[in-house]
Specification:
The complex is a heterodimer of chains A (264) and B (514). Chain A is built from ten helices and no strands. Chain A is mostly helical. Chain A folds into two domains: 130 residues, Cytochrome Bc1 Complex, Chain D, domain 2, CATH 1.10.760.10; 115 residues, Cytochrome Bc1 Complex, Chain D, domain 2 (Orthogonal Bundle), CATH 1.10.760.10. Classes of the chains: A mainly alpha (264), B mainly beta (514).
Chain lengths: 264, 514
């Protein structure tokens, strides 16, 4: 990437951070801790969760949570993601280590935000209703996945200023981690490996276009991108970089700045 | 003469020379298929992951079309629940407010919300170039090209606030065939949902489509209606070409009119092939529906307003009701079964025109009932309906018209199977059959041994659609007449029966939503 490009990205990034961060956060009420009225887990709340599930979720995720509702096949005829099969115990959007169950808060975030392009955000449900439907969804999970309390991958540090130096360093990390192989040199999802990507169920899976943050399924805030890099997206092609980047957390933030700069 | 307009009439009402017209249409079609989709991209600014730009609700929720549609415009079960719930996500009653700008502050605006225009404004544009192949050219030697575009719909729809929604649909049809250009409100309705408790009772008031919740609703056809070429101001009506739409929806009765008061008005003669009553595209009225027992069962009751066919017409309110059962049968499989009943008192008058003098029989009550089913399985969407029509016995003031022969029952069947072959390709096949009632034979002195008037009709149609982007469908379609040639009685001109005259009706078109 040449200097001119980096300078332009830096300038535009600085300007647009101010313009976009506020609205973006406002549209994504995913600060789960803010929802204090979490009901207890008991038969009654799980039954209430089933009632809500049957109204709101069953058409895609199916009666048994296998992702086989009547709408599922029409959603994406030729490529993933298909509605999640909860009984597989494989979850993309986690704050936990790859292979672990998501936390309740992760599920709450997915239910609240939805998945751009594919699943609506159900923030029209009251927070208590969302918790209840999560309690019910968890009844579908494999028992061995629930035997251990999932460990949350720590987000170390805070977002760094998106200056030229940071974006340049992020670009170097992007090259080192071979992100370009899937996401492409310009982040447009057109890397050499992109055409052959599949999810764990054999469905073709396009690589994310990093120039379109609103399509980021795991969120587009700096913290969301950081989380995606370190936890990976289980079931998809995006692997976890938590081990590779241990001790290099600052580089992750630089990479986050680079990714966000791609769209500006 | 029955059903056979003259060439001059069609030329008088706006037809132009075919080559000139075709050139204009071809140019316009090219414009539409290139520039308008691009403008759709630009206007929506949608960034919904892998899918492209899509209309208002998808924009609002940042979703692809297929979350609610098998393929636009057909709704899948999730889209049906979204519609039933007044354009609120199933299970919620928030009025979609979570995605709107909160005006807030103390005072009258406290809690009020404002949606972005693109979240409730959408448009649909349909254009076809059509060609009919007929057994007998009764109307014109010209190819039957339509003006461009055929129909433009603009929608304003959404939730105003919690459980209060609105729907406006305007339709612009440019000058075509024998019609003038016109803009009209196709449907206008206020929707109140979740009265009492969630899905207990919901109300629609205004100009509504009664069959919205039927397994085979009148709107949302993958094969857009091909409009008739017909004149219905006089009796007998003149049908140069039958429309192409699910025949089960049609009136299925020959020889009926709306009564003497409507003589000279469009629609005076009831066309046997036009969608009617419960299956009309829109009627003024109200309906109440809900799911008081959960997701399994939906009830609907309603009334539609119209005029009686008596000598001094009065207002009539046609009651109707529908029951629907929804089953989730297993992986990727859902089944709907629905049935309805519609009753119209003094809705029509049997009519004859011996020697050109129009004579009316006694007004008749009209009953319609039908059953429908729809099955989703993986990429398949299969649906069909059987609809029966029944009128009172026909009574004329005296001989010789009392010697005319009438059938008080009609039957229509429409079956369709749609297959999403690929993300960009869609194939649909539809079979329509109609065993109409109404006038069977004129009095023997006029009819002789000639064939009956209410001949069966049957078409088999197919459509192949290509979606370069999700909101633009380019298609080719053809409908084949499955029944052989039949002439009208000599007393009615002896021409080919309009239901049998077309052998193939084909079209190339574009259907866009943005």
């Amino acid at each position: 990437m040449d200097r001119q490009r980096i300078a332009w990205l830096t300038l535009s990034n600085a300007a647009l951070v101010v313009l976009t961060t506020g609205p973006a956060l406002a549209q994504m009420p995913i600060e789960v801790a803010a929802y204090n009225d979490r009901p207890p887990v008991n038969e009654q709340t799980i039954a209430e969760g089933k009632r809500i599930y049957d109204l709101s979720c069953v058409h895609c995720h199916g009666t048994a949570g296998r992702g086989d509702g009547p709408v599922a096949y029409f959603l994406n005829r030729s490529f993933g993601p298909h509605p999640r099969n909860f009984t597989d115990g494989v979850f993309k959007f986690r704050s936990t280590y790859s292979g672990d169950a998501p936390t309740d808060e992760d599920l709450f975030r997915s239910v609240t935000k939805g998945i751009p392009g594919f699943m609506p955000g159900f923030n029209g449900l009251a927070p208590a209703e969302r918790w209840k439907v999560i309690y019910y969804i968890k009844t579908f999970l494999p028992e061995d996945l629930l035997e251990f309390e999932p460990e949350v991958v720590e987000i170390v540090g805070e977002p760094l200023p998106a200056n030229a130096a940071s974006i340049r360093r992020g670009y170097e990390v992007y090259q080192q981690l071979n992100c370009w192989e899937c996401h492409g040199p310009g982040g447009q999802g057109d890397g050499p490996k992109a055409p052959d990507l599949e999810d764990d169920w054999g469905f073709p899976l396009p690589s994310a276009d990093l120039t379109r943050p609103s399509s980021f399924k795991n969120g587009s805030r700096p913290e969301d991108i950081y989380r995606t890099i370190v936890t990976g997206l289980d079931g998809g092609a995006m692997t976890s970089f938590v081990d590779m980047m241990r001790g290099r957390e600052e580089d992750i933030w630089h990479l986050v700045n680079f990714v966000l700069a791609l769209s500006r | 003469m029955w059903w056979t307009p003259t060439d001059s009439r069609l030329h008088e009402t706006g037809r132009v020379r075919p080559i000139h017209r075709f050139a204009l249409q071809a140019a316009a079609l090219g414009l539409t298929t290139t520039i308008l989709p691009m403008s759709g991209f630009a206007a929506t600014g949608n960034d919904a992951g892998l899918e492209g730009p899509v209309p208002a609700f998808a924009r609002k929720y940042n979703l692809s079309c297929n979350v609610c549609h098998t393929r636009e415009p057909r709704l899948n079960p999730f889209g049906q629940r979204f519609q039933e719930n007044g354009y609120q996500l199933p299970g919620t009653e928030d009025g979609g407010t979570s995605l709107k700008t909160l005006l807030g502050g103390p005072g009258p605006l406290d809690g009020a919300t404002l949606d972005e225009v693109t979240n409730f404004l959408a448009a649909r544009l349909r254009a076809e170039v059509q060609q009919s192949f007929v057994r007998q050219k009764t109307v014109s030697e010209d190819p039957d090209f339509r003006s461009f575009p055929n129909v433009v719909n603009v929608f304003f729809a959404g939730s105003a606030t919690r459980n209060v929604s609105f729907y406006f649909e305007t339709e612009f049809a440019p000058p075509a065939e024998s019609e003038e250009a016109k803009v009209e409100f196709e449907r206008v309705m206020l929707i109140l949902t979740n009265l009492g408790r969630y899905q207990l009772a919901n109300i629609r008031i205004g100009k509504i489509d009664p069959s919205a919740f039927f397994a085979f609703p009148t709107h949302r056809q993958q094969m857009n209606p091909i409009f008739p070429v017909a004149e219905s101001e006089e009796f007998p009506p003149e049908i140069a070409r039958i429309p192409v739409l699910p025949m089960a929806f049609a009136a299925k009765m020959f020889g009926l009119t709306r009564g003497s008061e409507h003589q000279g008005e469009e629609g005076f003669s009831i066309l046997p092939f036009e969608p009617f009553f419960f299956n009309a595209p829109a009627t003024t009225g109200a309906m109440l529906w809900g799911r008081p027992l959960g997701e399994l069962f939906l009830y609907q009751i309603g009334v539609a307003q119209d005029e009686t066919a008596e000598d001094e017409p009065g207002v009539r309110w046609d009651p109707y009701g529908l029951l629907r059962f929804d089953f989730l049968l297993g992986p990727y499989t859902a089944l709907q079964l629905s049935g309805f009943y519609y009753y119209a008192k003094n809705a029509a008058r049997p009519t004859l025109a011996p020697m050109g003098n129009v004579v009316f029989g006694e007004p008749v009550d009209w009953r319609r009932w039908g059953v429908g089913a729809r099955l989703h399985y993986r990429f398949l969407d299969i649906y069909g309906t059987v609809i029966w029509d029944d009128i009172d016995d026909v009574v004329f003031p005296g001989p010789p018209l009392t010697l005319s022969e009438w059938d008080t029952q009609g039957l229509g069947v429409s079956l369709e199977a749609d297959w999403v072959i690929h993300q960009n390709w869609f194939l649909g096949v539809r079979w329509d059959f109609m065993d109409p009632g109404g006038l069977v034979k004129l009095p023997p002195l006029l009819q002789g041994e000639d064939p009956e008037i209410n001949q069966d009709a049957s078409l088999l149609g197919g459509i192949l659609k290509f979606y370069p982007v999700p909101n633009v469908g380019l298609y080719a379609r053809s409908h084949f007449n499955l029944l052989g040639s039949v002439q009208f009685p000599a007393a009615l001109g002896g021409d080919e029966h309009p239901a049998r005259n077309p052998t193939v009706i084909s079209a190339l078109g574009v259907d866009m939503a943005f």
